[in-house]
Design a protein that fits this description.
Blueprint lengths: L1 E3 L11 E20 L5 E21 L4 E3 L12 H13 L4 E7 L10 H16 L6 H11 L3 H6 L3 E5 L3 E4 L6 E6 L6 H5 L26 H7 L1 H10 L5 E3 L6 E5 L2 H9 L6 E6 L12
Parallel strand pairs: 4-5
Antiparallel strand pairs: 1-4, 2-3, 3-5, 3-6, 6-7, 8-10, 8-11, 9-10
């Protein structure tokens, strides 16, 4: 058990939230439109939630400690976005409540599916509810942005067209869909891809009304494929069945398919050295209603 301490908390009536989904996301496209003076890249993207992801359990503590009760290999407690999110919420609100937090990891690290960011968002939403700290969605999104550019989207909690560094969000209405998500079993560091010299950083901005998958692309994909050829192999293999694209900065790739049965058929044919999953689109984050 990894433990970080704060002050003691009074007893509270609501003690647990179990099986809280931290859903994966897809970037249906990702354009890099510029770079700010502070080095952050300006983006445009379409975020889509999936009904598949990590699962988190929360139980209140009366001693004010934040305890990570499951290990995440290679991630010390102090660096874990789940722990950092809980501590940041305590700091922002002055709450003296604590929590035991268990994380069941399903999403591959370095996969571009938003696993760590989604875990952090679920933590902020769940503990804001359990601790009764009462922050609004906008306030939680502002806290989330301090932890990572994708966190505000997960707190926003529905498909969105995003701009800026990913924090400027507009609701996006998309038809339900089934996807195959494939992991080529490599981890792609986001910072490495964004710092590459050959990365395209001058894509022309588009309007939300102009967004279609066929007229867009992922500007990070070619750079990631050069650095990690296994990503290109995964795109080519999945592309036999439907148009395939990398999500985020990689390494995972995805394709929209016609049905659950078709998704399962492709998953069953996945080469043994990779992993594949079927997933449906998710209209709204399962914890969306916990924010008043």
């Amino acid at each position: 058990m990894d433990t970080l301490s704060l002050n003691a908390a009074p007893p509270t009536a609501r003690r647990k939230l179990s099986g809280c989904l931290a859903p994966a996301k897809l970037n249906l496209f990702l354009h890099v439109t510029g770079r700010r003076a502070d080095g952050y890249h300006l983006l445009q993207t379409a975020f889509r939630l999936l009904d598949w992801g990590d699962s988190l359990d929360f139980e209140l503590r009366d001693d004010g400690r934040i305890c990570r009760v499951t290990d995440t290999p290679g991630v010390p407690a102090a660096a874990d976005l789940v722990v950092r999110a809980a501590l940041r919420l305590q700091q922002e609100t002055g709450s003296t409540a604590g929590a035991d937090i268990a994380v069941l990891k399903r999403l591959p690290m370095g996969g571009g599916l938003g696993g760590g960011s989604s875990d952090a968002a679920t933590t902020l939403i769940a503990l804001n509810h359990l601790w009764g700290t009462g922050l609004s969605r906008e306030q939680l999104q502002a806290l989330g942005l301090e932890l990572g550019a994708d966190v505000p989207f997960f707190i926003y909690g529905r498909d969105a067209f995003a701009e800026g560094v990913g924090e400027k969000l507009q609701s996006l209405t998309l038809a339900p869909a089934w996807y195959v998500v494939l992991s080529p079993e490599v981890s792609v560091p986001t910072a490495e891809i964004f710092s590459a010299r050959d990365l395209t950083r001058d894509s022309a901005p588009i309007k939300i009304a102009d967004f279609t998958p066929s007229s867009t692309r992922n500007d990070l994909q070619e750079t990631a494929c050069k650095c990690y050829p296994e990503v290109r192999k995964a795109i080519d293999w999945l592309g036999q069945f439907a148009p395939a694209r990398m999500t985020g900065s990689g390494a995972c790739v995805f394709a929209e398919v016609e049905s659950k049965a078709e998704a399962q058929r492709i998953v069953d044919r996945c080469p043994p050295h990779w992993r594949a999953w079927k997933a449906a689109s998710l209209a709204q984050h399962p914890l969306h209603g916990l924010i008043g």
